[in-house]
Write a structure and sequence with these properties.
Structural class: alpha+beta
Largest sheet: 5 strands, antiparallel
Radius of gyration: 20 Å
Number of strands: 17
CATH class of one domain: Alpha Beta
Number of helices: 7
Mean pLDDT: 77
Helix content: 25-40%
CATH superfamily of one domain: Copper amine oxidase-like, N-terminal domain
CATH architecture of one domain: 2-Layer Sandwich
Strand order of the largest sheet: 9-10-11-12-13
Oligomer: single chain
Amino acid sequence: MKKSVIWAGVISLSLMASTAFAAPQNQGTNDTTIQAEIEDGTVSGSVSGDEKNDGSKGLQNAYENVKDKPAGARIAELLKTKYNIDVNADASLATLVTALEKDGELEAAADVQAEVVSQDPANIEEYKILSKLKVKLGDKKVKVYVNGKTLGFEVSPVVESGRTLIPFRAISESLNAVVTYDNVSKTVTVTRDGVEVKLTLGSKTATINGKSVTLDVAGKVKSNRVLVPLRFLSEALNTNVTWDTETSSAIIIDKNTEA
């Protein structure tokens, strides 16, 4: 049965076809989930596609079929294809999210809100809206976003002593950093833009370009994945980290990203 969104009392806003919902370009490791595996003293990355993120393929998977249509028509057709929902093709993304949520279409609303975040990656409030939708969908896990993208993990982040630990390769690769792991010394090395960070598993002492710093919590191994303190590593790599307690979300944004 075809579903539709009720638009009573909603003023539709125009979408700019040149900016909103452009066909996705190759984003490299930013669009993938990288798992760090300890194998014979080395760390190898296994790449999984968008279907790993949030357990949802998302709207972008259907872009190739409708990429030549205007922006509003593209999102309308994507929603109809994935959810069998008819929407106003001239509505703004924010209007779509509000209407979908009001109509009880939470998964569709979350998919559209993820696109809002990707279009405005420096806007912290948009991430919070997305996380609230995920919580309504039953997602109580720690959620991590990097520069407008949602990270997905086979091994979920953990919280210890008020600090979030995250699979180190996932966060490092999402920031286009170079990562290595020495299984003999149990040392993680992450390099980005002239900054070298080293952490030893089980130790609260790390180094940034050779200078020692003290961590609140040490890195560890969980299910053969190396987990490191998210805030320390992210800030050491020149990003801003915002923690949203209400939704258990970490929002990581490059300092050079324009607001």
